[in-house]
Amino acid sequence: MASTRKVRNLDDLAERAGVTAATVSMALRNSPLLSEKMRERICRLAEESGFKPRTYRRRALPKETAEDGENGPLLVLYYEFPGEPDPVREGIMPALFLMLNERRIEYRYISCQELMADPSIVKDYRGILFYNDPEDFVLPPDIPAAQVFGWEPMREGQDRVTTNDSLVVRLAVDHLCKTGIERAAIVWCREMVAIPDHPRITGFLEAMRERNIEVEALPFHKNGGDFLPMLKTYLAAGSDRIGFFAFNAFCGLKLCCALDSLELMSKYGNSGLVVCDNSPLLYSFSPRPVMIDLNLPQMAEFALEALLRRLKRPELPGTVLLQSPVLISFNSSEPVQRG
């Protein structure tokens, strides 16, 4: 039976809607990260419940009432890929928005494309939060910044939070080898890997070779039709005792869809397929693949803390924080494995 308790805050509304408070926050701000159907459902439920949210585009607050408001305003950047999933953005931004609102920090959320069109935007902000390495433009050197993921050399006044790819590789290789595989393949998207020798890719290939496992890379183009034929060729080329490793959630989605179309998801999905991300994009597959949880919300929290610290102490040297991943098997008989 539906709850009759009065909706007083985001948590109450989230409980009634069956989603997280971060999702409710995004829906009430008309965030493009949610589907139109989800936004409409939550906004309709809020209206029916008589819930009136506070303003989510915050104004700067007086220092005597703000917790961290004096640190704003901040600029939060995202990448715009119309019609395409962006698991990193979807994992980071809801948690980041919730923290910014709770701490009463004024911010503006814009796309990198918008910043490229008008670089003067940054002059109105004290710090920048972003993820991955921006393409085609360079962030101004005189504004503090914190980044989630990234491979390009850091400039002065910047901090970075990323995952420990050595532990990611170890978790994936250890798990797959325990299943008795004879071959292994890593699946990655050419347009998503910024550097040709990414440690997640080279590390996986090297670790499998050290264990005398035949291993191959299966790179594909994001908008091409090359992956399914390549996968079919690979499957037919040797033993069917294969362990698959997907570089990220997008690559995992590509691989799971391909295996599902070949009616092979039940064969590999339960233990022979590891995806480097714990993403809702993969939850509808049965069986659900093994996932390496990078804990993107926690990475967002660490990035925000790093930026706030830098705003108070800009003389500090740049730092790189490597966060440990966790392997999650949705087979209840297998324990969680930590890096």
Features:
Rossmann fold; 339 residues; 7-stranded mixed β-sheet; alpha/beta; 6-stranded parallel β-sheet
Can you walk through the features of this model?
With 339 residues, the chain is α/β, with parallel strands linked by helices. Among the domains are: 10-49, no CATH class; 165-294 and 329-338, Response regulator (Rossmann fold, 3-Layer(aba) Sandwich), CATH 3.40.50.2300. Helices cover 36% and strands 18% of the residues. It has eleven helices and 13 strands. It has helices at 10-17, 21-28, 36-49, 87-102, 112-117, 165-178, 199-210, 227-236, 249-261, 265-268, 296-312, and strands spanning 74-78, 107-111, 127-131, 145-148, 158-163, 183-189, 214-220, 242-246, 273-275, 290-293, 320-323, 326-328, 337-338. The strands form two sheets. Strands 7-6-8-9-10-12-13 form a seven-stranded mixed beta sheet, sandwiched between helices. A six-stranded parallel beta sheet has the order 2-1-3-4-5-11. α4 links the parallel β1 (74-78) and β2. α2 (21-28) crosses α3 (36-49) and α6 packs parallel to α7. The model is unreliable at 55-66 (pLDDT under 50).
